[in-house]
C-alpha cells in the first residue's frame, strides 16, 4: 500500500472475518436482529438530540462534553456491530451484544479519538454544507441520503453476494470482504464528522481491509 498517503487518525474501524461462517444463518439474520433494531431506533433518536446539545456546547465552549461524546460513540459502536453481524457485512455469526461499550472481544470494533477542542466556525457548516459531497457518495453505498446500513444500496448488495458465496462454497471471498469493510469505514468516518465528533475532514478514499495499522492505513 502506498505509504505516501495521509492517514485519518480520528476514526479507527476494525473488522475480523470469522471462520467458519454458517452457510445458511445469514438468511434469517434479519429476524435475529429485530431486537437490536428496536433498541437502536430509540438510541438514534437520542443520538440526534445529543448531537443538537453538543452543537451548542461546541459553539459556546469549543468542547464536546465527554459524557455526550461517549454516548454517541457507543451508539455508533452498537450500530457497527449489528451491521457487521447482519447485512452490512455478514462478517460474523457471533450475536452482537446489547452494549454501548467498546466490547474489545467482538470482531467489529470502532474507536473515535476524543477531541479536546473543536472549531466554533466549523460546527456551523460541517454537518451540512461541508459534508454534502460525502453524503452523495455514501447515499450510493447505503441506498439513501442518510447514514445507516439497512436500506439497501451497494453495501447490502455486496453482503448478500457474500451470503450466496457462503451458501455455495462455505467461503467468504477475501477481496469482497475487504471492499465491504472499506465501504463501511467510509460511512463511519462521515458519521463521526457529521455528528460533530471530529474536525478532521474525511478523505475521499476507499481504505479497504479489516484492520488499520498504527499509521492509520487499513490492511
Structure summarized in a few sentences:
With 219 residues, the chain is mainly alpha-helical. It has helices spanning 29-32, 34-61, 66-85, 126-130, 132-142, 153-169, 174-194; strands spanning 11-15, 108-112.
What ranges have pLDDT less than 50 throughout 5 or more consecutive residues? Answer: 1-6
Tell me the Rg in angstroms.
17 Å
Principal-axis shape: globular
Return the structural class: mainly alpha
SS element count, helices: 7
User: Terminal Cα separation, in Å?
Assistant: 8 Å
Instruction: Indicate the mean pLDDT.
Output: 92
Question: How many strand elements?
Answer: 2
Largest sheet: 2 strands, antiparallel
- Strand portion: under 5%
Give the topology string: H per helix, E per strand: EHHHEHHHH
Overall helicity: 40-55%
Spatial strand sequence of the major β-sheet: 1-2
Give me the secondary-structure topology.
Blueprint: E1 11-15, H1 29-32, H2 34-61, H3 66-85, E2 108-112, H4 126-130, H5 132-142, H6 153-169, H7 174-194
Antiparallel strand pairs: 1-2
Helix pairs in contact: 2-3, 5-6, 5-7, 6-7
Task: Describe this entry's structure for a reader.
With 219 residues, this protein is mainly α. The chain has helices at residues 29-32, 34-61, 66-85, 126-130, 132-142, 153-169, 174-194; strands at residues 11-15, 108-112. The chain has a two-stranded antiparallel sheet. Helix 2 runs antiparallel to helix 3 (66-85). The longest helix has 28 residues, at 34-61. The radius of gyration is 17 Å and the shape is globular. Mean pLDDT is 92; it is low at 1-6.
Amino acid at each position: 500500500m502506498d505509504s505516501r498517503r495521509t492517514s485519518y487518525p480520528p476514526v479507527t474501524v476494525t473488522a475480523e472475518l470469522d471462520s467458519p461462517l454458517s452457510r445458511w444463518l445469514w438468511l434469517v439474520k434479519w429476524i435475529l436482529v429485530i431486537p437490536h433494531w428496536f433498541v437502536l431506533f430509540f438510541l438514534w433518536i437520542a443520538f440526534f438530540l445529543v448531537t443538537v446539545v453538543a452543537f451548542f456546547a461546541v459553539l459556546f465552549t469549543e468542547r464536546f462534553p465527554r459524557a455526550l461524546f461517549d454516548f454517541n460513540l457507543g451508539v455508533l459502536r452498537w450500530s457497527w456491530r449489528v451491521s457487521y453481524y447482519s447485512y452490512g457485512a455478514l462478517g460474523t455469526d457471533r450475536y452482537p451484544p446489547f452494549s454501548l461499550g467498546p466490547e474489545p472481544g467482538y470482531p467489529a470494533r470502532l474507536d473515535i479519538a476524543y477531541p479536546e477542542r473543536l472549531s466554533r466556525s466549523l460546527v456551523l457548516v460541517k454537518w451540512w454544507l461541508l459534508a454534502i459531497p460525502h453524503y452523495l457518495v455514501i447515499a450510493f453505498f447505503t441506498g439513501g441520503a442518510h447514514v445507516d446500513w439497512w436500506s439497501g444500496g451497494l453495501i447490502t448488495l455486496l453482503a448478500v453476494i457474500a451470503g450466496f458465496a457462503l451458501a455455495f462454497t462455505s467461503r467468504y471471498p477475501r477481496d469482497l470482504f475487504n471492499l465491504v469493510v472499506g465501504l463501511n469505514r467510509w460511512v463511519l468516518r462521515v458519521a463521526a464528522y457529521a455528528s460533530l465528533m471530529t474536525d478532521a475532514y474525511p478523505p475521499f478514499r476507499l481504505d479497504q481491509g479489516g484492520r488499520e495499522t498504527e499509521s492509520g492505513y487499513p490492511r
